[in-house]
Structure formats: C-alpha cells, structure tokens
Amino acid sequence: MKRWMLTGLVVAAALPAAARAQTVDVTVLAASCATCHGPGLRGSGAIPSLRGKHAVDIASTLRAFQSGERPATIMTRLSKGWSSAEIDALAAKLGSAQ
Amino acid sequence: MRDVMRARMRVTRRAVLLGAGATLASPAIVRGAAAARVVVIGAGFGGATAAKYVKTWAPATHVTLVEPAAEFVTCPYSNQVLGGLRTMASITHAYTKLARRVALVRDRAAAIDPDKRMVRLGGGRTLPYDRLIVSPGIDFRWGAIEGYDETAIQAMPHAWKAGPQTVLLRRQLEAMRDGGTVVIVAPDNPYRCPPGPYERASMIAWYLKSRKPRSKLVILDAKDAFSKQGLFLDAWKRFYPDIIEWVPVSKGGKITKVDVKAMTVEDEFGTQHKADVANVIPPQFAGKVARDAGLADPSGWCPVEPHSFESSLRKGIHVVGDATSAAPMPKSGFVANNQGKVAAAAVVALLAGKTPADATWNNVCYSHVTPDYGFSVANVIHVAAGKFAEVPGSGGISPRDADDKFRKQEAQYGDGWYASVTADIFG
Predict the structure, then answer these.
(1) pLDDT at A21
(2) How far apart are CA B366 and CA B332, in angstroms?
(3) Closest chain A C-alpha to B381 CA, distance in angstroms
(4) CA geometry: angle A46, A49, A52, nearest 5 deg
(5) Is the pLDDT confidence value at A23 over 80?
(6) C or N: which end of chain B has fewer Cβ atoms within 10 Å?
(7) Is residue A3 classed exposed, middle or buried when 0-12, 13-18 and 19+ CB atoms within 10 A define those classes?
(8) How far from each other are the two terminal CA atoms of chain B, in whole angstroms?
(9) Over 80: is that where the pLDDT of A6 sits?
(10) pTM to 2 decimals?
(11) pLDDT value of position A9
C-alpha cells in the first residue's frame, strides 16, 4: 500500500500543473461546502444557493474571495486555504452538478 | 485490497468450518465479497455523517448505524436555548430520514472486538464488520473535580451533552432570583467546543440582562486564554459590562472541588465561590466504548492516521468526532461532520482496494453574543508531512474591528450553517 502511495506521489510530481489539476480529488472538499450551503448546495437562510452557477463563475468568484477583491465574512478566510487546482476542480464539480 | 482479501479469506474459512450445507444459509457468503459491511457507532455529528456519506458514495455497501437514542439533540445552538432564544424542539432532530438510507440499530455498542471485527450490542446481538467507524463523542472525567460525579449533575448541571441537562440548566436560570450569581466552571484544553463556554456565558447574560439585570455571571476558567478571546472580551465590555466576569487560572479560576449542598465551588487555593446556579463543565475524554476498545492513548483521546482517520492503535477501525486527538482541529460539530466525510471517503476507497485520496476540508465555528451579533473562527485543514495541518495563510478569526453589519451577517450565517449542517446529516 505504501509503495503505491509513493508511486502516486512521484507520478503527480512529474505531471505538468495543468494535467495535475485534473487529478485533484475534491470529493471531500465539495462535500465540505454542503456543511454551510446545505444538501444539494441549495443554501439556507442568509447562506446563498450555489445551484445553477456556471463553473467559470464559481472559479472566478472563489478567486476574487481569495485575492480579497470581493469582500466577505468567511469566504475570504476559507478560499485562501484552497489551491488553484482545487478551485478549478471544485468549480468543475459544483458547476457541472447542477 | 487487504479488506477484500480478508473478506474472501473469512468466507473460505467459514465455508470450511461450517460445511457446504451451512454456507447456503450464511448471508456473508450469499452477499459475496463485493458488498462490504460498514458499522458506525454513534449517530451524532461525526457518525451519522459518516454513515450517510459511505452509503452515498458506495450505495452497495451495507451500512449499519448503532445508536441508542431515539433522536439527536445538538450541542450547537443549545446555548441559545439557555438564552431563551430557541426551543428544545428546534435543536432536536429525528433519525427518520437517515433510517431510510442506512440500517439504524437502536441499541448501545457494548464492546468492540478488533481481532474478530465484531461489535457486540447491549442487547447481546453481534455485528460483524469489514470497516468500523467509531464516533462516540465525549465522556466526563467524574471525580476530576472533587465532589462532581454523576449525581452532582442534578444540582450543578454540565449541560455539555444537550438534552435533559440543557432543560435543567434553563429551568434553574428561570427560577433564579434577580441579583443572583451564575457560575460557569470552564475546563482546560482539550474539550468539546472550545468557544462553547464563552458563547454560553454570552447567551445566559443576554437572558439575565433583559430579565434579571441585577444578576452576575462569573466564569471560573482552568486556563489563561480561550478561543476568540479578544472578540468575546470586546463584546462583553460592550453588551454585558456589569454582568460577565472572567477569572483565568492565574487569578484563581481553576476549580478543584464542588459542594452541591452548599452550592459552592472551590479554587485550587481554597477560595470558595457561592453560586445560585452553577454550570460545571468538567474535564473530558473519549467516549467509553472507544477507550474500552483500546482506541485511546494515555491522553484519553484517540490518535488517528490523517489520510483515513483509521485508528493509529487498532487497524480496521476509524475514529471521528470529538473523541479524536486531531489538533489543530477543534472539537466542533463542523469538524466532526467533515471528519465523517473524510473517513467515509477513505473507507470507500479502502474497501475498493484503493489508497485514500489527499483531502482538504474546512471548519467554521460561529458564536453568538446577542441574537444579532456573531463572529467566527475558520480553519482549512489538509495533511502535510503526514500530520493534520492548517493550510498556511488560511482561516483565522473574524476581524476585531468589524462593523455591526459584519457581526449581524455572521450571526445570520451561523443560523444558516445550523440549518444546513443538520439537514446535511439528518435530512
């Protein structure tokens, strides 16, 4: 099992950034969004729904939170913890799931 | 792969032992190695989430969730019940919908046999598993504070497991005279919900300020610093300057003894504090079933492997929620919910013979000081150098200089979070 993990790491490190982005598994991170945005990311009370958003808009909004260009209470702090590859993968997953 | 092989070996062994005739009746063999059995102990924030997400991500899996209670009362938002802002019904969640997704067994997990991979229930039944997820929550260290045991909680409720204790503490607050003193005894780290005692003080002060304004609330604390301290102290100065007093350990805050008849609590130097209402939050450790199974280390908490939440001490068993030793994550409901998801993804991967993927996940803890004034601490967690770590540059507490609009938004987002997370788990 350990050898597989090591092999995986070596392969991941050798891949160019763009290709690696597609290999990022955001199953858990996307599920983490539901902790606030709710089942199906339909939102709840003051927390907005993410349904019907395009992947491109999700990615650009998250990057705007990350840079501070778009002010927020919590999303600025959270988005700074997500890599560019994770943001792309999240946007693809959440955007395409609508 | 290991699990599939183990399942096959078990099938073969049983077939040999029981003979061909008996094998026909054995569910393990009819089912085959493909449909793995996952047992989850504890249907709180960690366990109920893990059970639901294993079933969601691997629908063929047999998921059995073991829980003695008929419904779940959340610790998050129970402070609002104490403040008179919410009802018990609003923080009580039925398992009805969850029971349609997974096999819910209403019993107590009496013991775990890690070698035989079996859970024995209080009713005597045994549940075999390929992977076990344990989310037992916390137990109290009775006697750690002299005089504070299972009987003392009627006079001095902990209310740190929500339910009848929450109702009892609320009734005591309602019965207290105006001008009375409420004492909150806060424990040293680590414990369930680091900002909880301070949000509780705020919510009780909210009630006292409007209904019993001559009353006092004293927090006697076994530590010198606490979660979101600056934000709480600022807010108390503004909203409750004549009500809340915080006494850190360095000023005699550590309570070592209580007397339920005299309604006094005593610090380590022998100074006694008289209380009209005493809320004692005692030191804690991992729930009994986890400790009995050898899942806890000498600290009393359960160490886990970061990628999978598999116990560092017992193979095949994953531990999630407050029982884990998983710094820098706080013991919060949000974290337990996310740990349940990480463990679920890992269990699904391991049962399929794969290595659990690298994951990143979040934590946000909201605290209310008034109904319209809230703030938060956030963390983004990943695994770095084989350990749990916060992603550098991420997370942190709400700005200390934020305006009232910001605080109101955070109070509202807290309410939204509560509705979402409970729907995510129990919906």
Answers:
(1) 43
(2) 10
(3) 8
(4) 155
(5) no
(6) N
(7) exposed
(8) 33
(9) no
(10) 0.90
(11) 42
Q: What is the pLDDT of residue B5?
A: 46
Structural domains in chain B, CATH included, are 2-139+285-355 (3.50.50.60), 143-281 (3.50.50.60)
Residue holding tokens 């989430």? Answer: B49
> pLDDT band at A16, cuts 50/70/90?
very low
Task: Give the model's pLDDT for residue A69.
Answer: 97
- How many Å from the N-terminal Cα to the C-terminal Cα in chain A? 36
d(CA B86, CA A45): 16
Residue B121, beta-bridge partner list: B109
CA distances from B370 to B159, B175, B185, B268, B330 (A): 20, 22, 21, 33, 23
- Residues of A within 8 A of B360 (CB-CB) are 26, 28-29, 32, 81-83, 86
Two tokens at B294? 């050898």
Distance between CA B43 and CA B340 in Å, rounded? 11
What is the predicted pLDDT for the residue at B55?
Answer: 98
Residues in chain A, overall count? 98
The whole-angstrom distance between A44's CA and the closest CA on chain B is: 5
Mark the ranges of chain B whose per-residue pLDDT is less than 70: 1-34
Q: In this predicted complex, what is the ipTM?
A: 0.90
Assign domain A17-96 to its CATH superfamily: Cytochrome c-like domain (1.10.760.10)
Mean pLDDT value of segment A12-31: 66
Give dist(CA B335, CA B171) in Å, integer. Answer: 31
Residue range A40-95, pLDDT digits in tens: 999 999 999 999 999 999 999 999 999 999 999 999 999 999 999 999 999 999 99
Provide the CB-side half-sphere exposure for B73 (13 A, CA). 18
Contact yes or no for B416 and A28 at CB 8 A: no
List CB contacts (< 8 A) between B376 and chain A: 73-74
Q: Cα–Cα distance between B408 and A45 in angstroms, integer?
A: 13
Q: How many CA atoms lie less than 13 Å away from B47 in the CB half-sphere?
A: 29
> What is the full DSSP assignment across B99-163?
HHHSEEE-S-EEEEETTTTEEEETTS-EEE-SEEEE---EEE-TTSSBT-STTGGGTS----S-S
What is the pLDDT, as a whole number, of residue B27? 37
User: Across the interface, which of B337, B361, B378 has its CB nearest the CB of A29?
Assistant: B361
Q: Identify any residues that bridge with B93 across adjacent strands, giving them in sequence order.
A: B72
Rounded (10°) angle between helices A84-96 and A55-67 = 140
**pLDDT value at position B15?**
38
